[in-house]
Specification:
This protein is mainly beta and 157 residues long. The chain is built from 1 helix and 10 strands. The strands form 2 sheets. Strands 1, 2, 3, 4, 8, 9 and 10 form a 7-stranded mixed sheet that branches. A 3-stranded antiparallel sheet has the order 5-6-7, with no helix packed on it. The protein is globular.
Length: 157
């Protein structure tokens, strides 16, 4: 009997320098567009960012204010997003205060490709819906084979 394990995971290198380690923007609880700081039950989504075939770290503290969190937030630099309500990838980048579009990821110009569950997403990257336990890969300036799923820790969203 042949038992196959999970697909091989290539350890992509983390990019060096501040462009690959962008900080979370400190928020004070004031609304960002229609996104209001509050509390409530969240779901978990995993996001991976790549530029020039290097990992871009999704920092902890996105969407976290002193006494509340925004509808899209991070608490660890793992790429796990905590999402409240019906949100999109554009909502995350708005709260983060960074750029995402068809031709830009953060400070990296170029054609942006998005994969959800390992499959290509067509359309504006900002419109990607954030569904429970989705695995989203965003890349610019080089292709990285996208992971189709993420093993969320037990009890996470």
């Amino acid at each position: 009997m042949i038992v196959s394990g999970p697909p091989a995971v290539y350890p992509w290198p983390i990019g060096a320098g501040p462009r690959y380690h962008p900080p979370a923007l400190r928020r004070d609880g004031r609304p960002v567009r229609e996104l209001r700081c509050a509390s409530g039950r969240t779901i978990a989504v995993h996001l991976e960012l790549f530029a020039k075939k290097r990992v871009v770290v999704v920092p902890r503290g996105i969407g976290v204010a002193k006494s509340c969190t925004y509808p899209v937030a991070t608490t660890e630099p793992t790429g796990v997003l905590h999402v409240r309500g019906r949100r999109t990838l554009g909502d995350l980048f708005a709260v983060w205060g960074t750029r995402l579009g068809t031709n830009r990821l953060l400070s990296f110009p170029g054609r942006v490709s998005v994969y959800v569950g390992g499959r290509p997403f067509t359309g504006d990257p900002r419109s990607v819906p954030l569904h429970r336990h989705a695995e989203i890969v965003v890349e610019v300036d080089g292709h990285v084979a996208p992971h189709p799923s993420y093993l969320f820790p037990k009890g996470v969203g």
